[in-house]
Amino acid sequence: MSQDDPLPDIPSAHEANFAHVVHAAATEEKPVPAPAPEIPPVISPPECAPVLVSRLRVNLRRFCFFGAVILVNLIAVLWLADLFYRQGFHTSHYFILTIFALLNGLLVLGSFHAFAGVWDWLFSWRSVRITRTSGEDAAPLTHRYAVVMPVYNEDIVKVSARVEAIYRSIEQTGQLAAFDFFLLSDTTQLSLWVEEEVAWTNLSRKLNAFGRIFYRRRRINENRKAGNIGDFVKTWGGGYEGMLVLDADSLMEGRDIVKMAHIMDRNPRLGILQTPPKLIRGSSVFTRLQQFAMRLYGPLFIRGLNFWQLGQGSYWGHNAMIRVKPFSEFCELPALPGKEPFGGKILSHDFVEAALMVKAGWEVWLAWDLEGTYEEAPPTLIDHLKRDRRWCQGNLQHLWLVFAKGFPFPCRAHLFMGIMAYLGSPVWFLFLLISTWVAWDFRHSNLSQLPFDGYVGEYLGLTGVQQAWILTVMVLCLLFLPKVLAYLGTVLHPRRRRSFGNGFSLTIGVMMEALLSALLAPSVMVSHTLMVLGMVLGHSVKWGNQTRETDGTSWGEAFRYHGPAIVLGIAWTCVACYVGDSFLYWMSPILAGLLLAAAVSVWTSRSRYGKALQANQILATPEELHPPAILEIADLAVAAVDPALTAQAPAREGVIAAVVDPYVNGVHVSLLEQDTENFPEASMERWLAEGSDALDKNEMTEVMYSATAMLQMHRSVWSRPFEQMHAQWGRAVESYRTKIEDMNAGER
Length: 748
Fold this sequence. Notes:
The chain is of the alpha/beta class.
């Protein structure tokens, strides 16, 4: 096609400011709201606000819960100490007792959350739930709220589908007028930036939501997600009483969002209201395993967590409603001393923000009984562990804060549990190493045990073997009894049992979850230990977007990632064989997990196996068998896609579309600040003459942030002879002729 050939009837860039015309005609509002007034300082929550739970009741619950945890752990530690005394104390026994006290304490703490959940369920009329204060959901909301979704290099079509589903779900409640929506982009890939702008325009146009759904991209991604949310709060937060913070994979029922807003309206002391999201859309065996375990066992643990934390809970970073004014006043995060990984910007900001809110006198509640809140999970074990690297660094940074001045005990407890979620693995690994050393030393020295009776032997008449078995059974009960209780509670409740398929598929799912969790645990232990070791050596993580879909882990990737675990498993197996059969049997669950790390990782990553399990309702969840309305709305949501306005057409995708396509160019330019001088003319000319590869990312970003430059680029592409430009521009222009010719052929 030469420059003299007739071109399709394409408007010029001046005539093609499509989004701006639609905005003006439909709402007479700008695509981004004007900055809100500065948020006035807030000193403390209203003193006259009612208190949901008395201080005496709160203290009594915490005393009973943590007192029971300490008592049970102390009994177990003394029992083991007495067993060591019967054998004759070895130097390493002191180390083993110390580590056992920590590990068993964590086990008891976790198990007692489930036991407290059972207690709360049995005496449900005494259960404390903040949702009882919501009142009548149909009543008009008295304040305005923002729904904010941070985006970082995501599939914007799927993100927009979730926004559309939440928008339509709130619209069905009749309370849409109280909500605005914000897509807060920190995307670094320039083509994805253009796709986000196009998707937002299509979404707003088809929902008639200009002036209600807003889009903003930060040019400098300072302080990751916390900085993204902070920028929103500083710029527009003053216009809203609260904000619902979501992740890019979040979904929430509109009725629950409205209920959360009512709760915040009626509880002036409430600073943060957290909901427990359920995992959905799992296709691989690994994700199905996760969502099944969370759905079956999670409610007991979450209910037990609420039993003692009450109004001094924690914030999990998403699917939570936050009161903007105190958040702005008290939750700006300080930089930690030193450099990353232990210093610098705080990665796991959510726990710290909740602690700062509670410290200032505001309440943080867990709305454990809100059902319509969902998220997705990484599809493979390796993706899960890669995400854990960031969480590991963020949680271990809390070592600076767990003893910070002014934090109440529940906040310190949350920080400590977050730290031990990752530090527990190297502690467990150390426990196994010391146990191996003791067994090796005993085998190598050929010493016999000294026949001491010990206190238990003297007063209870138990042999050493009996005493050891009792301790083993106790630990196994703490490990498995919570799952057994959750299983029995489901099996004995017909309606809940049917929501998981049937009794047989539920039983098979529980057994499979127990087996695979045992096999996965050793490789997770090794990975977390290496993460902590890497932090100690000064290796920091990079901020990456989360993998949400994959076809599975390759064998090569599995052996590369799990190689240390497999080598360790081989060496440890040789040592165990030398030490003796009894030690080998005792270590066999750990050794099997290490030796089979790559195989289990690959097998659990396969979607075809997950679909086979799904066909037989194994590892099924209620949301899978009976999809909630919000999932069905999201599956049908296509407002962000329009062939007439797209940045994904062949030969003109992303940044190329932003230059060539008149509509995409118009959308992009309408979202930029108008500039009249100092535009990057040299970079423009190189881009036109040499193509996209001639510019580095910073140069291309400079061009794309200049409205004048982008308009002039558009004119040049459509007016210059093809011989004076790079071939990619000619291909982009030619794609319009191909489309027109195809349309004419279809008419003939």
